[in-house]
UniProtKB/TrEMBL annotation:
This is Dihydrofolate reductase. Belongs to the dihydrofolate reductase family. It comes from Paenibacillus enshidis. It catalyses: (6S)-5,6,7,8-tetrahydrofolate + NADP(+) = 7,8-dihydrofolate + NADPH + H(+). Its EC number is 1.5.1.3.
Amino acid sequence: MSISMIWAMDKNGTIGNNNSLPWRLPRDMAFFKEQTINKTVLMGRKTWESFGGKSLPQRKNVVLTRDPDYIADGADVIHRLEEGMKLAEQEQLMIIGGAEIYKLFWPYADELIVTRIEEAFEGDTVFPDLDWSGWKPVREIQGITDEKNPYCYRFVFYERV
């Protein structure tokens, strides 16, 4: 099938702060849900724990961790990249974070879905410094700014060249 990666980042590549998002953009959260609903979402342990250890509804949740004893109630737990690749042979896999997981799956991804926020935020996690030369933007949707979504942002879809 395929591997897609989805994330939001600010203009400096920041993707997180204290294991949560540094901004509040409800329209981005709705977009994330729309893109991942009824699909398999794969995340690292820290991302899973940032959701309070609760599965995302209407999605098959998979947690990738090195800890052989880790239990994630409501999610399947895997321990190796190869297990994730095997899933991707059977269904569309949505990689949803964090930075280490994006870096691990980067060479195998078919599609990137990036919310680009045109602001700078304080954060302790940035998207990995990876080679974008093999990617091209194929579609862009300008985000709607309003009182609940105060930052300028856009959704950009990339495909492998």
